[in-house]
Every structure is written in C-alpha cells, then in structure tokens.
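Re: that chain you flagged

S.,

Sorry for the slow reply, it's been a week of failed gels. I finally had a moment to sit down with the sequence you sent. For the record, here it is as I used it:
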Amino acid sequence: MRRAEQLGPFRYVQSEDCFPLGQDTLLLAGFASLRPCWRVCDLGCGAGALPLLLLGREPSLRVTGIELEAADAELARRNLAENGLAGEIMTGDLRRAKEYVPAGSFDLAVSNPPYFPVAAGASGGRARAEECCTMAQLCATAGWMVKNGGRFALVHRPERLAELLAELRAHGLEPKRMQLVQHGPERPPSAVLLEAVRLGRPGLAVLPTKIMGGS
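Prediction finished late last night. Pasting the structure tokens below so you have them in one place:
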C-alpha cells in the first residue's frame, strides 16, 4: 500500500515498507548549505524525500540518490519523474560506492543515516540499526564522493557526537557547522545537525539550538 503527501510544491509517495518521512529529514533539508547548480547526492535516499525537499529550496540542483533497497529506489525515481524533475537514482551499496562513483563527483552529500550500532538495544528497529552501513563506512563514502571543498551534511544522535566528529575527521571531512535540536527548553537535545567540509580548515560554528514546539 502506498501513501502520498505534499512536500512543498511536490507530491511525495512512499510505501508502508519505506522508513517513514520524519522531522529529522525535514530539518536536514533546511540545514544543509546549497548553491545554484550544485551536484548533490543523498546517501541512502529511500523513496527520495530529501532530494525533493532540496529541489524545493534550489531548483537548479543536479540531484543523485543512492539506495540499497530496489523497491525504495524505484519509488524515488517515480517521485522525481512524476513531479517533472530530473535526477538519477542508483540502486547500490554505499559501502561499495568507489566501484561505481568517481572520487570528487559531488559538491554536497547529505544523509539521514541509521542512528544505532547493531545490538545497541536502542529504539528504531532494523531501519535505524547500522546493519548495512556503519558510521565509519558512511563517512568514508562521503569523503570519497565530495570534491575538495565540498560538503557533507547529516543528522544524527547527540550521544554519538564525539564518535561522529572523530569519524568525519578521520575521512578528511572537517566539521564546520553544528546545530542541536530539542523539543522544548527543558528537554535534552534529540538530534544534531552537522555539516563538514572536505579538507576544510579547523573551526566549528555552533548555531543556536533549534527549539521545536511540543513534546
């Protein structure tokens, strides 16, 4: 069964098997730096919500998505086509991206990745566990795909921030912008938005915490 919703000017269709569109994806779409005509790749694009949201901000982007699940990748292709948008969706394993994506192909990579190590006991189910791509593997792929001076923007869990910063730097990605997200001023942060630059100079700008309404 499929369900549709409106993402700005675009109609977005996903199946019950897709990881549901959530606030984290919406936040990342608004956080990532964009420039006209940038080449952008969504690592683990699912049914293609993030490319649609980014194209809503900057229609001149040249978007690519990589998705392991063939059914989700096909939905992403349909979502682009049925909205009259150009773009390429690859069905592939991020861990093997060097086999089919030339180094430095993109100005920006984005990702809303699995948050939890396998067997960590955290919530989120299979789709949120790093069964098919660990944090280290994701950062390695992003570091390979973006050009020198290119960017990698992602959303993750605050409790893994130290690990994330270390992995980004280990793969040539210097953290440059960060914003915590929390649901109300009395609640602890629930997400962290982070953007790194390939071979960038040290210096991290910490933006004001984004306070979301409700609990």
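What I noticed first: The chain is about 25% helix and 35% strand.

Talk soon,
D.
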